[in-house]
From TrEMBL, chain A:
Pfam families: zf-HC2 (PF13490). This is Putative zinc-finger domain-containing protein. The lineage of its organism: Bacteria, Pseudomonadati, Pseudomonadota, Gammaproteobacteria, Oceanospirillales. It comes from Endozoicomonas numazuensis. It comes from the Bacteria. The chain crosses the membrane at residues 113-132. Residues 19-50 form the Putative zinc-finger domain. Keywords: Membrane, Transmembrane, Transmembrane helix. Signal peptide: none annotated.
């Protein structure tokens, strides 16, 4: 049975080659349990790998006692004075930690969501995306429902949002917009539902609000009567309000992340 | 001195010489190593606010140093180094009696620091770096993977190969010290 012997031999050779990349991990106790078993089974029958492993141990141990090299005294002095150099403007961000907290909050939301849908690879890609986002300064508004929506959006920047409830479908959808999280809130004194959406590299909130709340403000009422929707923008943050069949839709987000009106698909339930 | 500056100095000063040690083993010029360290520390100071609470200061400094070195070396030359793979079959290695466990240990004991340093310096940079981080600086595979931005499995394979290459360089140079010491990257060629 020459043929089968050769197949076995090829397999052994393949394993022998592949395991050579794991020998450091074996020496350093960095392998998973199943990998340890495979390596040990192979080592028992392979002198070349055993010798290599022994050399890895010796070398690693030997290198750990290499003496510290010291920099010159003049460099030490220069480094003592390095803090006289101006720091980058990120210093302002340190005083307003808002900028980094929503990313952390959203990251947690993402991880939960991604785990149930796309697994780790997705989660990782999403976290990277979220760390890149910058939520602009949230403006104030004298329209109560807008002020409420903005304040909720701002709360997201302070990391004290409620943890996501079950994900239902958001009232509005658009290409590239993904629902992250949803929870109940109150807008204009009436119950409302928030939907945190990822849109590009940013987060857009949409709210399903009470119809009477939507039409309460004359400015909003007039804009809807004339153009079908109300919208305003300040400091890069856009607010949009439009009627749905029996409720109102309010959207808040960075202007660059807001979907074009034509891209919006609204579930009119 | 401002509170921030004081905090920065407190956190980073203990690591200066270790950072320099890592730098100086990656170049044959002490001056260049000092330049790298100075640039790294300046970057660290400028971006001090980026240091995360969960991050160890030393790993953070090494990450900065790594990027400074990569930038500098890339600026200087673009020679693409082929990753030499020394397998345990390396015939030339097998010929040497000191490739076995006991004799190799003895051989290592006889090496002086200069010889070891020279041997390390002949490794291709991406292998040398992993070897320095793990064996000299004692970092975990996870820390190394985060510093270099590569998967843990890659840390492991590079380290396996780096140690194999270094062993082979030391063994070969010991037996023909009159010859050119530089390791040949592929096994069996001489
Ligand atoms: Zn083997």
């Amino acid at each position: 049975m020459n043929a089968s012997y050769n197949t076995e031999d090829t397999k052994w050779q393949e394993l022998h080659t592949a395991l050579q990349d794991l020998l450091a991990g074996y020496a350093d106790n960095e392998l998973e349990d199943d990998e340890v078993m495979i390596v040990e089974a192979h080592l028992a029958g392979c002198r070349l790998c055993r010798d290599d492993l022994a050399r890895q141990f010796s070398l690693s141990h030997h290198l750990s006692s290499l003496p510290l090299e010291r920099m010159s005294a003049s460099l030490h002095e220069k480094l003592d004075r390095i803090t006289e150099q101006p720091q980058n403007t990120v210093e302002t961000q340190r005083q307003t930690p808002k900028v980094s907290t929503p990313a952390r909050w959203l990251e947690r939301q993402w991880l939960k969501l991604a785990f149930s849908t796309g697994g780790w690879a997705t989660a990782f890609a999403l976290v990277v995306t979220l760390y890149m986002q910058q939520i602009p300064n949230v403006p104030h508004s004298n329209i109560p429902m807008v002020a409420d929506a903005l304040s909720e959006y701002q709360t997201a920047q302070q990391d004290i949002l409620p943890v996501s409830q079950q994900l239902t479908e958001a009232p509005a959808s658009w290409p590239g917009g993904t629902l992250l999280s949803s929870w109940e809130t109150s807008i204009g004194g009436a119950p409302a539902q928030v939907y945190a959406m990822r849109s590009g590299k940013d987060i857009v909130f949409q709210y399903r609000i009470n119809e009477s709340v939507l039409f309460r403000n004359p400015e909003v009422r007039q804009a809807i009567a004339q153009q079908g929707s109300y919208s305003s923008e300040k400091n890069g943050t856009e607010i949009r309000a439009l009627p749905m069949k029996s409720s109102g839709l309010l959207m808040v987000g960075p202007r660059r992340a807001m979907p074009a009106v034509n891209d919006l698909k609204i579930k009119t339930i | 001195m401002s509170h921030t500056a004081q905090q920065f100095q407190q956190l980073t000063t203990p690591w200066r010489d270790r950072l320099f040690s890592v730098a100086v083993r990656q170049t044959d010029s002490r001056q260049r190593a000092e330049d790298w360290v100075q640039e790294s520390m300046l970057k660290a100071w400028k971006h001090f606010s980026d240091l995360k609470e969960t991050e160890t200061v030393y790993a953070w400094l090494l990450k900065i140093l790594h990027s400074v070195i990569v930038d500098d070396v890339r600026r200087e030359s673009r020679r693409a180094q082929l990753a030499p793979v020394v397998s345990v079959e390396d015939e030339e290695l097998q010929k040497h009696s000191s490739s076995a466990a006991g004799p190799f240990e003895e051989l290592l004991q006889k090496q002086n620091q200069e010889q070891v340093k020279t041997a390390i310096s002949t490794l291709p940079s991406e292998f040398r770096e992993v070897l320095l981080f793990r064996d000299v600086e004692g970092l975990s595979y996870l820390e190394i993977s985060e510093i270099l931005g590569i998967p843990k499995g890659t840390v492991m394979s590079r380290l396996s190969r780096a140690r194999r290459m270094l062993s082979s360089i030391i063994i070969k140079s010991s037996n023909n010290s009159s010859n050119h010491v530089r390791a040949k990257s592929t096994g069996g060629m001489s």
